[in-house]
Amino acid sequence: MDQELANGAAAGGLGVIMLVYLAILVVLIIGMWKTFSKAGQPGWAAIIPIYNIIVWLQISGRPIWWIILLLIPIVSIVIFVIICIDLAKSFGKGTGFGIGIFFLGFIFIPILGFGSATYQGPAAAQS
Fold first, then answer.
1. How far apart are CA 75 and CA 100, in angstroms?
2. Which of 4, 42, 61, 119 keeps 20 to 30 A from 85, CA to CA?
3. Mapping DSSP to helix (H, G, I), strand (E, B) and coil, where does residue 64 land?
4. Dihedral angle computed from the Cα positions of residues 24, 27, 33 and 39, in that order, rounded to the nearest 10 degrees
């Protein structure tokens, strides 16, 4: 009886974790959709794997071949930080906001999409 109760509690906890994960995922997708739309890109690109990274690179002003760099361990972390900072700067935000996108994207990307920030062109191309 105790084992059945423990199994039920574990399954319930796993269900809660899954619901929280799905809620974060939905918020992130909607935020990316709005961010892409603000930048004049198709919002639906947010739900297409790999293509959403290509669009993110275009918005940031980085070359598309950087997607290859994202496949290299450790290098990919540095490249992704740079892309996040460029994305923030493309919307008139600072480096700190870009670091926020890197570490807490599920919070900062919806802020970018639903906030008052406007797309100012690709930041990397302006440098």
1. 19
2. 42
3. coil
4. -100
Question: From residue 30, how far is each of 78, 108, 114 by CA, in Å?
Answer: 26, 12, 9
Residue bearing the bigger pLDDT, 81 or 3: 81
Radius of gyration of the chain (CA): 18
Task: Give the residue among 99, 56, 35 at the shortest CA–CA distance from 66.
Answer: 56
CB distance 88 to 104 below 8 Å: no
- Which pLDDT tens digit goes with each residue over 38-89? 999 999 999 999 999 999 999 999 999 999 999 999 999 999 999 999 999 9
Only one residue has tokens 């669009």, namely: 55
Tens of pLDDT, residue by residue over 89-105, are: 999 999 999 999 999 99
